[in-house]
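## retry 2 of 3
previous attempt timed out at serialization; input unchanged, resubmitting
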Amino acid sequence: MSEVFTGNFTQQEPIPEEAIEAAVRVMRHGRLHRYNIVAGEVSEAALLEQEFAAFTGSTYCLAVASGGYALAAALRAVGVGVGDKVLTNGFTLAPVPGAIASVGGVPVFVEVTDHLVMDLTDLQVKIASSGSRVLMLSHMRGHLVDMQALMAVCDAAGIAVIEDCAHTMGAAWNGVASGTQGVVGCYSTQTFKHLNSGEGGLLVTDNAEIMARATMLSGSYMLFDRHIAGAPSAVFEDIRLDTPNCSGRMDNLRAAILRPQLKDLPARCKAWNARYREVENGLRNVPAVRLVERPSNEDYVMSSFQFLLPEMDGAAIHDFVNRVATRGVELKWFGADQPSGFTSRHDSWRYAPSQELPQTDRVLAGLLDLRLPLTFSLSDCAQIARIIRDEVMKGRS
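## retry succeeded, writing output
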């Protein structure tokens, strides 16, 4: 009889006891708003900012309400306004073009390669044809492009790079933390990301003016001096009066939950990668399956797994996804003609101008994705790989 996987692909591990205790302390004193502090107290949100800045090696950090809010704040802080074109990946998730649209910007999609990263040749073409001066680079599903090569292209063209690191918290390229090579790095602490506060986001930069604008945008009022990882007060002199309040603060309750998790993040990253490699090893050398090989320069953190079935047409992949689902394995297919759940693609975002992306469409047509929560054991991951391998082989018989 065929084996069936019984795990839950959306079940995260429990919040650590230390984080629960920290959250209870905040609830007991009742000062959940980040600026509601007593004499001599530093808020949980400010402490989280200080600790995350140190973790990434950044000068400044801002804690906000969501990863999407961090992206939108970063765009406004670097000067994107109504009608401005913003370059971004053709393969990403809806919050990225959504953030661009939310500030009145116009997404310009750049092709992706078979390695699921931005095509630098097409980037150069789109820089020249669009006139854009901003790139929102999505490290989609944890895959890092050659950051040295990308920054060389962007620096030569005067392009400001905002890094969407929702899937790469803890990752690095040539030892440099993801999110710190561009002018701004944005992270998510939504439940399915590497830190879990339900919703939440973090923004890092070494640029004091950008941080000051983002801080005012987040709703600091005139309390910006309470950010211990914030820009110097003198930088706010004009920015504080010229920048609108678009409230999106992180509260002390979520910050309290996140701080203990941040201390454990390096160990959690190793655990995710062990699960990733278990699935990768189980699918290696399977006919019709193409794996995404990782460059040696990349220190990845993979809480999800991607593979391609380039030989199958749409009908065959649809059938394959349904067959593995009956055996308990939930796969997301980026080639489906309609968005489903969290999964959508560039041609389903009608708020963005329609664009021809033949290379990206070819890649997405065969691209499959699955989550790897830490509630899965290594043996669970090996079983998932066996089921996928078995159903691929059945489809070839």
